[in-house]
Amino acid sequence: MIHETNLRVRYAEIDAQGHVNNAVYLSYFEVGRVEWLRAAGLSYKELEDRGYGIVVVEVLAHYHKAAFFDDELTLRTELADLSRASLRFEYRVSRDGELLVTGHTRHACVDLATGRPVRMPGELLEAARGAPS
């Protein structure tokens, strides 16, 4: 499933050079995956309430072009890989169809009470399988 989220660049996200700070895209990626989960019928809050945490273990971003204050961006999030032990999301950030940033995050599932790795919860696996393409 691919999910699109619209974002507007806030002034606080701008760096001294006048464009979106590179680190802000990691926050955008987080918005994308939280909204992807919601669109698939499962909220991240529900996972936490059940004692699961989906932690980032790897992140990569390629910066193609800059975004600026008040730009309207489209964030495209896709679940690229899901196994019993990890999942991987891919992201594309664009402005009016122009590609600005691509990237991915890989995640592991942990038991929030112990911090120890656990298998992905069944409800996440089911939501991913049942998510429309």
Structure description:
With 133 residues, the chain is an alpha+beta fold. It has a single domain (2-130), classed as Thiol Ester Dehydrase, Chain A (Roll). It has three helices and five strands; from the N terminus they run βααββββα. The protein has helices at 24-39, 44-49, 122-130; strands at 2-8, 52-63, 72-82, 86-95, 98-111. A five-stranded antiparallel β-sheet has the order 1-3-4-5-2. The mean pLDDT is 93.
Short description:
By secondary structure, this protein is α+β, with helices and mostly antiparallel strands. The chain has helices at residues 24-39, 44-49, 122-130; strands at residues 2-8, 52-63, 72-82, 86-95, 98-111. The protein has a single domain (2-130), classed as Hotdog Thioesterase (Thiol Ester Dehydrase, Chain A), CATH 3.10.129.
